[in-house]
Structure formats: structure tokens, C-alpha cells
Write a structure and sequence with these properties.
Helices cover 31% and strands 20% of the residues. It has 150 residues and is an alpha/beta fold. The protein has one domain. The strands form three sheets. The protein has a four-stranded parallel β-sheet with strand order 2-1-5-8, sandwiched between helices. The chain has a two-stranded antiparallel ribbon with strand order 3-4. A two-stranded antiparallel ribbon has the order 6-7. α3 runs parallel beside α4. The longest helix has 18 residues.
């Protein structure tokens, strides 16, 4: 049995997987989870076949469209399905995903107008994982929620 408990957005661990190709500063506690073997880093967008860098994308209704008007819904769905398969394969029941992302946002996503406005909503991967009983947290609430509820 694996001791892997989480999938974690790779960008939160300092991997340069963001749409702009940049690496954000790693969240030390999340990097430690990966290094200890308790978490697997994932990037649903890359896993779905999108390059890095890539045009930013936002959810528009039931589609994901990038800033140059290309529908990338299929790549987002494919990446979400691959993350779900990884969770099921390893018995992972918790995910710590990057807030506001069209893949990973669990409470808010950008509104689809590329105006930097946030609205309540879930990204494609976060929604699929939650539909399959995987608890989704973000970088700001994972410690308090996972510690309080097991």
C-alpha cells in the first residue's frame, strides 16, 4: 500500500508549469510532502497535452477557451481524467490545488472575460475530483482543513 495521501498542483511546488512558463515560489510545506513521498505533484493542463508556456485560459460556460479564442476544453478534461486516474490508482483521497485556476480552482475561478475578475466556481479538475469523492483544498486552507478533518 502506498503512503501517498495527496496530489498537489506542481506549480505550488515551484515547478514551472504555469501558463506563462514561470515558476511561483514553492510552498515549503507542500514541497516537503512531495519530497517525503506523501504527495504527487500534478499539472492537469500539462497532463492534458497543453504546452508551457501557453495562452491563459478561462472557463466560459461549459467550455475552456484561451485568450486567443482557441477552445481547449478537451485538453482540460483529459488532464482532469489523468489526475483522477492517478488518485484512484494510488488510493489518494485529498488534493491540494492552485486556487483560481481553470483546472484547479476549488472556490473561485476567473470569470471568462480575461478581465482578472474572480467568481465563485470550480476548475475542471477540482470539479471532477470532487464528483468522485476526493476532497479538494487549496494552498490557503489545506492545513487547517486536512488537520481538522483527517
Amino acid at each position: 500500500m502506498s503512503n501517498v495521501e495527496y496530489v498537489v498542483s506542481a506549480c505550488l511546488c515551484g515547478h514551472p508549469t504555469r501558463y506563462d512558463g514561470a515558476a511561483k515560489p514553492a510552498v515549503p510545506a507542500l514541497t516537503a510532502l512531495v519530497e517525503s513521498g506523501c504527495a504527487l505533484p500534478v499539472c492537469p493542463e500539462c497532463m492534458g497535452g497543453l504546452p508551457t508556456p501557453r495562452p491563459p485560459a478561462e472557463i466560459q460556460g461549459d467550455r475552456v477557451v484561451n485568450a486567443v479564442g482557441v477552445d481547449v476544453t478537451e485538453q482540460y478534461r483529459r488532464g482532469a481524467e489523468q489526475v483522477l486516474a492517478l488518485c484512484l490508482q494510488h488510493g489518494i483521497t485529498k488534493a491540494i490545488l492552485k486556487q483560481n485556476s481553470p483546472s484547479c480552482g476549488s472556490r473561485a475561478v476567473y470569470d471568462g472575460t480575461f478581465s482578472k475578475r474572480l467568481v465563485a466556481g470550480r476548475g475542471v479538475t477540482a470539479a471532477l475530483l470532487e464528483q468522485h469523492g476526493i476532497r479538494v483544498f487549496d494552498e490557503s486552507n489545506w492545513q487547517e482543513k486536512t488537520n481538522a478533518s483527517g
